[in-house]
Recover the amino acids of this structure.
């Protein structure tokens, strides 16, 4: 049995420990916000946080999450209590088809948590593992920059504490 | 209250709906009303037509007839209907329409989304729906309030009398007893408050919070998962297979042959995926089995050089003009096969019960999906319910029905709801592709740059017959298979021998006013399935035409923008777009190592010019910025127009720099994003968009930003390096 924290709740999984975390989260725990895009860690649609770091979960065996904290898009924020990046995503009209956006936001949230004042180059580097086929990159970048440069500041620890 | 209940019951009886509500009108001309709309009517809902539902609580629900695949159509069409209904689209609840003839695309005759036509074809009809519904609500308010309707006005979902504001919802019960007005007057564009204004996308919040539901997110109690092992070479059948190891793999429930391969059904997707690897299959060989990419390119060139093609269209006498020319350029351009690679791999979830079938998926042709299920399951059409979800990208890939056919065959073999999911490898290797194209352009100009003769020829596979082969079983569900096969065969024969498939040659001459031209085609089909790919034929014809325009400009020592303007004298809209873009380009100051390239192309009724700012370092092409000028008529939501152009630039730049599907032994070589790379953020250019102010009716916007990008970049690369690249993707030697 593998036990881990999922968006702040302790959960356990008794199936094949080699099952990628993505499928455990989607099919066992029914959180559908994280997406399947490539199954090879190449596109980032499945990005979640593992102890606060962005990680591609389509190639991560669930066993690797044992006793760790997993945060998904559902744990980052919700329509009633948005993460600042989610607000920025709406303000910048970022999504097109929207399928990759959970992964984009999770990758961006990990970056902002680590580097609250991330520069354009930091963003390019941190986000280049996430593909957007609709090509929303200019808006994704603008949305992240608006949060990174927000005069209101941003308390990364408050968000991670929720998870 | 008792009156209300009575009236509702009365209408329930007349409409045959269960759950409440009324259906009183058919909104679009040419659409036949057959049976109730697939609207889940709330207890107290009022449904004046197929598109709108208004509740006593004043919730306004819009049933969107077009599929949302990122192009912003739910926002766009809600804006159009909301403008005349006088309801802020941002406050509407917008849902995907179920499958019904009333939602047919007026141009397609079937419910579907493609060809960048949705805003254009629904612009007038949905304004009328909004205006008529508003007039109906005013009539009801007039009756209830005892005030003549010409003394009433509306404001964002309220009827206004003096200082009093009455929600529309107050009048829906009365409205449901009145006749629907028709041909109510529409607003003058100068009175628009929503159309033409930037507004947030209606689906942005759901998509930023992971709550937007895609086909892959369907999850039914007791659902099992299926994957299909498909042949390496398209269309090959399994001669034999050994499933002894796969059958006993964890979670496996069944292994069944389907028409496209062998399906493995398991308790979870991961288990199905792992078990499928244990299956060994011997596949037959077919005509495609020996084909390589090199051979395709060779065959396409041979076909063009053979001069044995079919004329598509001509004007004047190009041969006479060539005979008098002092300079002739004749050049080949090539574009390879491409995959769509939408981020959401194809999937479909089907539950067949005694009462009917329910499908959750993402598909661009809901009507054809319903039809193909009708054909395969034998269920009456009315018992087949389609829940079309947000599409995780379409680009034409979801215009095909392969995932619907597969899930139907699988679901009929097992007594449980089943979700079929394609892997990325399945997606890239077993797709329907943008066909490879060889184009030969022969052209000359007078000394001032006016093109006096133009001959454009294309060879390659056609799209329409192949796509119809896939779609017809769904579009004509009751036609017997033998007749259907006959029809498809005839279509194939016609396009191979007699007539030219318009999709194959579109864009080879239309942008410019050419006095003497001939466009022709040689069909060469190696058997790899093809279909529409964002901007279709324009995706490659623009590369040839716009590269040639720069080559002609150089031969005549004329500025490339000036040469284009010379050939646009009868095309004022494009002439203006090119002139505006030319001015922007002339005023651009870029670093010494950066170079600018220009291209323009008309497609889907829209005119686009692009300027690419490019540098080349150690043979690597880097695009720093793309400036777009677009005339798409009235921009319903300018910010979505900008987003579509930004996205089109990225989509086209992927194809320009990387896009290539290769064949080896008939099998697609590329398998995932490591060898079919998609542009990433660190490679993405800045995009500026200038929208020409216009109050003419809107034209397409999902696709027209794609065609000019490749030639704009190629033209810039030429300026940077002196190398004229005539093959896509662009690779310096």
């Amino acid at each position: 049995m593998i036990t881990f924290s999922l968006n702040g709740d302790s959960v356990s999984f008794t199936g094949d420990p080699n099952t990628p975390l993505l499928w455990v989260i989607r099919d066992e725990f029914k959180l559908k916000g994280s997406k399947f895009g490539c199954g090879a860690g190449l596109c980032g649609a499945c990005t979640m946080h593992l102890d606060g770091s962005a990680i591609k979960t389509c190639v991560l065996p669930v066993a690797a999450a044992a006793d760790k904290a997993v945060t998904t898009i559902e744990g980052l924020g919700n329509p009633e209590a948005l993460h600042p990046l989610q607000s920025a995503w709406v303000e910048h009209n970022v999504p097109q088809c929207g399928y990759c956006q959970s992964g984009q936001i999770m990758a961006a949230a990990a970056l902002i948590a680590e580097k609250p004042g991330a520069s354009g180059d930091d963003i390019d580097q941190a986000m280049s593992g996430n593909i957007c086929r609709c090509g929303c990159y200019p808006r994704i970048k603008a949305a992240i920059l608006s949060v990174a440069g927000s005069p209101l500041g941003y308390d990364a620890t408050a968000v991670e504490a929720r998870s | 209250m008792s009156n209300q209940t009575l009236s509702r019951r009365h209408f329930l009886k007349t409409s045959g709906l269960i759950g409440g509500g009324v259906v009183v009108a058919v909104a679009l001309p040419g659409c036949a009303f057959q049976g109730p709309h697939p609207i889940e009517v709330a207890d107290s809902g009022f449904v004046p037509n197929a598109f709108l539902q208004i509740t006593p609580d004043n919730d306004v629900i819009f049933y969107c007839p077009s599929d949302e695949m990122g192009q912003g159509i739910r926002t766009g069409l809600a804006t159009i209907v909301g403008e005349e209904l006088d309801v802020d689209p941002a406050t509407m609840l917008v849902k995907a329409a179920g499958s019904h003839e009333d939602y047919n695309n007026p141009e397609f005759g079937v419910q579907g989304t493609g060809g960048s036509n949705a805003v254009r074809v629904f612009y007038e009809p949905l304004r009328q729906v909004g205006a008529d519904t508003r007039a109906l609500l005013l009539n009801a308010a007039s009756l209830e309030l005892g005030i003549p309707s010409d003394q009433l006005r509306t404001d964002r979902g309220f009827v206004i009398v003096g200082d009093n504001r009455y929600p529309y919802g107050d009048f829906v019960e009365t409205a449901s007893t009145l006749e629907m007005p028709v041909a109510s007057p529409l607003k003058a564009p100068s009175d628009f408050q929503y159309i033409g204004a930037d507004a947030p996308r209606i689906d942005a919040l759901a998509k930023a919070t992971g709550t937007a539901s895609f086909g892959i997110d369907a999850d039914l109690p007791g659902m099992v998962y299926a994957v299909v092992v498909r042949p390496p070479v398209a269309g090959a059948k399994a001669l034999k297979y050994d499933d002894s190891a796969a059958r006993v793999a964890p979670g496996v429930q069944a292994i069944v042959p389907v028409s496209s391969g062998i399906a493995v059904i398991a308790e979870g997707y991961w288990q199905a995926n792992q078990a499928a690897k244990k299956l060994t299959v011997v596949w037959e060989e077919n005509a495609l089995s020996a084909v390589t990419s090199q051979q395709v390119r060779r065959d396409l060139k041979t076909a063009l050089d053979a001069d044995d093609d079919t004329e598509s269209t001509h004007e004047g006498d190009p041969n006479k003009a060539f005979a008098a020319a002092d300079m002739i350029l004749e050049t080949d351009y090539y574009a390879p096969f491409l995959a769509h690679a939408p981020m959401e791999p194809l999937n479909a979830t089907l539950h067949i019960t005694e009462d009917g079938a329910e499908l959750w998926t993402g598909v661009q042709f809901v009507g054809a999906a319903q039809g193909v299920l009708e054909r395969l399951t034998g269920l009456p059409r009315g018992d087949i319910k389609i829940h079309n979800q947000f599409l995780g990208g379409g680009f034409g890939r979801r215009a095909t029905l392969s995932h619907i056919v597969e899930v139907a065959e699988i679901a009929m073999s097992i007594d449980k709801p089943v979700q079929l999911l394609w892997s990325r490898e399945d997606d890239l290797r077993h797709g329907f592709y943008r066909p490879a194209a060889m184009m030969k352009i022969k052209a000359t100009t007078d000394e001032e740059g006016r093109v006096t003769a133009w001959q454009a020829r294309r060879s390659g596979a056609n799209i329409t017959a192949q796509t119809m082969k896939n779609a017809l079983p769904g579009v004509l569900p009751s036609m017997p298979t033998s007749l259907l096969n006959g029809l498809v065969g005839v279509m194939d024969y016609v396009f191979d021998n007699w007539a030219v498939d318009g999709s194959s040659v579109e864009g080879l001459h239309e942008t410019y006013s050419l006095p003497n031209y001939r466009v022709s085609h040689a069909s060469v089909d190696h058997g790899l399935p093809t279909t529409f790919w964002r901007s279709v034929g324009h995706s490659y014809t623009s590369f040839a035409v716009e590269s040639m325009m720069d080559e002609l400009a150089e031969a005549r020592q004329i500025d490339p923008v000036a040469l284009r303007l010379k050939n646009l004298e009868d095309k004022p809209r494009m002439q203006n777009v090119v002139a505006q873009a030319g001015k922007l380009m002339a005023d651009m100051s870029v670093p010494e190592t950066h170079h600018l390239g220009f291209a323009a192309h008309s497609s889907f009724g829209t005119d686009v010019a692009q300027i690419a700012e490019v540098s080349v370092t150690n043979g690597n092409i880097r695009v720093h910025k793309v400036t777009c000028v677009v005339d798409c008529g009235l921009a319903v939501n300018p910010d979505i127009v900008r987003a579509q152009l930004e996205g089109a630039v990225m989509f086209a730049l992927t194809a320009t720099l990387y896009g290539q599907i290769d064949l080896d032994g008939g099998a697609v070589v590329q398998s995932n994003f490591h060898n079919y790379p998609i542009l990433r953020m660190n490679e993405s250019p800045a995009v500026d968009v200038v929208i020409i102010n216009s109050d003419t009716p809107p034209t397409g916007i999902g696709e027209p930003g794609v065609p000019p990008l490749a030639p704009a970049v190629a033209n810039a690369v030429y300026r940077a390096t002196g190398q004229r690249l005539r093959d896509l993707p662009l690779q310096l030697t």
Remarks:
- The radius of gyration of chain A is 15 Å.
- Chain A touches chain B through 60 residues (CB under 8 Å).
- The mean pLDDT of chain A is 92.
- DSSP finds seven helices and five strands in chain A.
